[in-house]
Design brief:
By secondary structure, the protein is an alpha+beta fold. It contains 11 helices and 10 strands. It has 3 domains: about 90 residues, no CATH class; about 90 residues, Phosphorylase Kinase, domain 1 (2-Layer Sandwich); about 170 residues, Orthogonal Bundle (Transferase(Phosphotransferase), domain 1), CATH 1.10.510. About 35% of the residues lie in helices and about 15% in strands. Belongs to the protein kinase superfamily.
Length: about 375
């Protein structure tokens, strides 16, 4: 069937306008496909009507990115495609931009200079990947095995962390983990980087979070002796982190793994963690609302005492099954946190109540350090 490509009623299958595919590495493949389509259109136009014909694309605006918007001419001229003769040039510019961005993306190693050589692996082909352990916005965690060793591999798709801040956060997490060696902190085994993925290899400990563990208990809470055993481990791990000048900033039940057979725990997910000078202060609003200290809620400066506050929230939740501060929404919750008023159950021991009161002091300057918490009467 003959088709009149110059007919004013003809439409190219309702194709959308050319988008700025080169601004996002995730769309490189789509950009190449679009380029191929445009090249085919040019070929058909030239074949059917010769180069004197006017492209139907000239009748509708086409959005293009900055490098090709004005085609090297005055801004007074139209940014649209004009004739089949101009199209190859436009396509060539897009193609070159895509190629340039692809090459830069591949050459830029995320972990370059972040980890020592002995922690960098060239490939994960020696690992057998199996079930999914966790799924986040930017990464997926899978159980893996290498020989007799089991581990957890956290895989980032580079296109999902293609802006500078996201990559900086990933590098910071990996670097911090590489410097932490504690019995109650998940251990970094190594890392592997390919052109399109970043694999962070960690020891596999347990698929049970402390949150799930508590929910499995008959009364959805732990007795004081059981909670004390777990809390001592948490305090020791956090004391080690603070000694290394690391603020975790997201301590919560979901970020603590527990072995149900012996109640041994490990802290995971250092995605919000940061290493700072002991005298420095932070002002980034981050964390999980129910565990946020008043200074974070109020968007004031904060540091290590914010982690201690989270310890108090964890201790109260473990022993009562409830959060000490609650609200119908974040606004109500933050108001409750600032108020600092807590209803303690009558069954709670005097020693435990005293410790929680000390920790959940709304004044961060009066809050005990993690070293002081470790010396409290209830933990002896």
């Amino acid at each position: 069937m003959n088709v009149n490509y110059c007919s004013p009623n003809f439409q190219f299958e309702n194709r959308p306008p050319l988008k700025d595919y080169t601004s996002n590495i995730d769309n490189i493949k789509q950009a190449k496909n679009r380029i191929a389509e445009l090249q085919n259109i040019i070929h058909e136009l030239n074949k059917s009507n010769g180069k004197r014909s006017v492209s139907p694309l000239a009748k509708s605006p086409v959005k293009v990115n900055a490098p090709i918007e004005y085609h090297g001419t005055s801004k007074k001229q139209s940014p649209r495609f004009q004739t089949p003769e101009t199209k190859p040039r436009e396509i060539r510019v897009v193609s070159e931009n895509v190629k340039m961005q692809t090459e830069n993306f591949i050459e830029q190693g995320i972990l370059q200079g972040v980890l020592p050589d002995h922690l960098l692996e060239k490939s994960i082909e020696n690992y057998t990947l199996s079930k999914v352990l966790g799924l986040g916005s930017y990464a997926i965690v899978r159980l893996a095995q290498k020989g007799s060793m089991f581990c957890a591999i956290k895989t980032y798709e580079k296109v999902k962390i293609n802006d500078q801040q996201k990559r900086k956060n990933v590098c910071r997490e990996v670097k911090i983990l590489s410097k932490l060696r504690h019995l109650n902190i998940i251990k970094l085994v190594g890392a592997c980087e390919t052109q399109v993925q970043l694999h962070v290899i960690m020891e596999y400990y347990s698929a049970t979070s402390l949150n799930s563990f508590i929910k499995q208990q008959p009364q959805k809470k732990l007795d004081e002796d059981q909670a004390k055993y777990i809390f001592i481990q948490l305090v020791d791990a956090l004391k080690y982190c603070h000694h290394k000048s690391v603020v975790h900033r997201d301590l919560k039940l979901e970020n603590i793994l527990i072995d149900p057979l012996n109640n041994k725990i490990k802290i995971i997910d250092f995605g919000f963690s940061i290493a700072i000078d002991p005298s420095s202060k932070l002002n980034i609003f981050c964390g999980t609302p129910s565990y946020m200290a008043p200074e974070i809620v109020n968007k004031s400066t904060y540091s290590f005492p914010a982690d201690v506050w989270a310890l108090g929230i964890l201790l109260f939740k473990m022993t009562t099954g409830q959060f000490p501060f609650r609200g119908n929404d974040d606004k109500d919750l933050y108001k409750s946190i600032n108020n600092g008023k807590i209803d303690y159950p009558q069954t709670m021991s005097i020693q435990l109540k005293s410790l929680i009161k000390k920790i959940l002091n709304t004044n961060q300057n009066e809050r005990p350090s993690v070293k002081e918490v470790a010396l409290d009467e209830w933990l002896q």
